[in-house]
Write a structure and sequence with these properties.
By secondary structure, this protein is of the alpha/beta class. Helices cover 37% and strands 12% of the residues. It has two domains: 204 residues, P-loop containing nucleotide triphosphate hydrolases (Rossmann fold); 199 residues, P-loop containing nucleotide triphosphate hydrolases (Rossmann fold, 3-Layer(aba) Sandwich). The structure holds adenosine monophosphate.
């Protein structure tokens, strides 16, 4: 199938050709015709499948007709992280270059003034993270009564990050008659319930079962003592043909420690995690993208959706707590058909995590030995929750935290407080604490984290769109039972 068969307009087709795409990806093939027909869409797709273009391309086409009023965005795209929001904005720039749609990117940390100015001029496409969106709404800078097109992207990630109450509130402010696209990499029952609440008679489209790593990624796992991990990593970095690599840690504190250690050993490394101010996050990611930094030590903030071409390696300095995160992490390499290599370093207590990952990916990850280092047995019976200090843990084990088992003769490690990481702690809280989470407190904390951010607004410009001066195109056929009516 070709893009022109999907029903997209000539300007969008030209932008696609300029981007060098010759064929729609499966999610694009399945979703675009329904979006163009005005249908709600429930899409089960991961990043890396061409999902972003599956909604941005038809949106550009649909929004080409019409004009935005001040403070009344015509469409809204909600993204869980600033990086993903910025990436969607780049997609609009790329695919919308032959249109004059106004776009605003509302992400935390940036000065309100510029964002408000942008909104005042009227925007066709508003791309936002939920917290900043609510802030601007509460300040009276946004009216959502004219927003007839909504995209909720990465819904399962939103759930993990505690954004769902914000999203429910935002959706409650939108017109009931609208077109809604809802994407999620996985479809657990609570996400399905949300989809049922937000969508009207949606077309369900789904591609590649979630959590299947690309075939282009060669995986390997080394079991080493925790205190040998840095040495193991250095060995791999020196013996593998590493052009550039993401190195994932489970905790922000470890990102900082490992980053310093790698620099000390002469590696050209940067660090990225959610506690850094947005300007630093953006700069570091750009430096990595441009090749000014070879190694990016990061938390799971970089695991999803970050799309950098030609990344040769991914290293899991820690085995992720959540099996799905493994797939997202290693998906940063082996993109666009290129070969990639993913190495994981497992401590002896990581057996349960490794087991869960291997079950999810449907294969045993080949083991490798690291020259000069002992290879302990992987303990599949250890209870990871006990080691993370849950009730029932011995005092010492509980304090130690998971994944820090040492050789028997070693002295007990210094007590390290576990730093909150976005995905896990909230999920843990959700799983182990029966009472309701304090969402207001979570939101307040998230906003505090966003205050220092200085990322610029990306827009299409402020010209009067040329299409206003042109005769309107006939409306698209809506014969196939659209569920949304004007
Ligand atoms: P996404 O899933 O939206 O993160 O997209 C993953 C990558 O695929 C991005 O680098 C896109 O630029 C690229 N891409 C999207 N659509 C196509 C296509 N039809 N052909 C080739 N590459 C594509």
């Amino acid at each position: 199938m070709t893009f022109s068969e999907l029903g997209l307009g000539p300007e969008v087709l030209r932008a696609i050709a300029d981007a060098g795409y010759t064929q729609p990806t499966p999610i694009q093939e399945k979703a675009i015709p329904w979006v163009l027909q005005g249908r709600d869409v429930l899409g089960v797709a991961q990043t890396g499948t061409g999902k972003t273009a599956s909604f941005t391309l038809p949106m550009i086409d649909i929004l080409a007709q019409g004009r935005a009023k001040a403070r009344m965005p015509r469409s809204l795209i909600l993204e869980p992280t600033r990086e993903l929001a910025a990436q969607v904005a780049e997609n609009f720039d790329k695919y919308g270059k032959f249109h004059k749609l106004n776009m605003a990117l509302l992400i935390g940390g940036e000065s309100f003034g510029d964002q408000i100015k942008k909104l005042e001029r009227g925007v066709d496409v508003l791309i936002a993270t939920p917290g900043r969106m609510i802030d601007l709404f509460e300040r009276g800078n946004i009216l959502l009564t004219d927003t007839k097109f909504l995209v909720i992207d990465e819904a399962d990630r939103m759930l993990d990050m505690g954004f769902i109450p914000d999203i429910e509130r935002i959706v409650g402010l939108l017109p009931k008659i609208r077109q809604t696209l809802f994407f999620s990499a996985t479809m657990p029952p609570e996400i399905k319930r949300l989809a049922d609440a937000f969508l009207m008679n949606p077309k369900e489209v789904s591609v590649a079962p979630p959590a299947s790593p690309a075939k282009t990624v060669t995986q390997a796992l080394a079991v080493v003592y925790d205190e040998d991990k840095r040495q193991a990593l250095r060995h791999l970095l020196r013996t593998e043909d590493v052009k550039n690599a993401f190195i994932f840690c489970n905790r922000k504190k470890d990102v900082a420690i490992l980053h310093k250690s790698l620099q000390k050993h002469g590696f050209n490394a940067g660090a990225l995690h959610g506690d850094l101010v947005q300007s630093v996050r953006t700069e570091t990611l750009e430096a990595f993208r441009q090749g000014a930094i070879d190694l990016l030590v990061c938390s799971d903030v970089a695991a999803r959706g970050i799309d950098i071409k030609g990344v040769s390696h991914v290293f899991n300095f820690d085995v992720p707590y959540n099996a799905e995160d493994y797939v997202h992490r290693i998906g940063r390499t082996g993109r666009a058909g290129l070969a990639g290599r993913a190495f994981s370093l497992a401590g002896p207590d990581d057996g349960k995590y490794v087991q869960a990952i291997e079950k999810l990916v449907g294969m045993e990850i080949p083991r490798v030995l690291i020259d000069g280092l002992e290879t302990p047995e992987l303990d599949y019976s250890a209870d990871p929750r006990r080691r993370r200090g849950k009730p029932g843990a011995s005092k010492e084990e509980g304090r130690r935290g998971r994944g820090e088992r040492r050789r028997p003769e070693e002295p007990a490690p210094v007590v390290e407080e576990r730093v909150q990481e976005t995905r896990r702690p909230e999920r843990e809280a959700h799983e182990h604490r029966p009472e309701r989470r304090d969402y207001r407190e979570e939101r307040r904390r998230r906003r505090e984290e966003e205050v220092e951010d200085r990322t610029p607004v990306i827009g299409f410009g402020d010209d009067i769109p040329a299409f206003i001066l042109r005769a309107a195109r006939p409306t698209r056929s809506t014969e196939s039972a659209p569920s949304v009516e004007e």
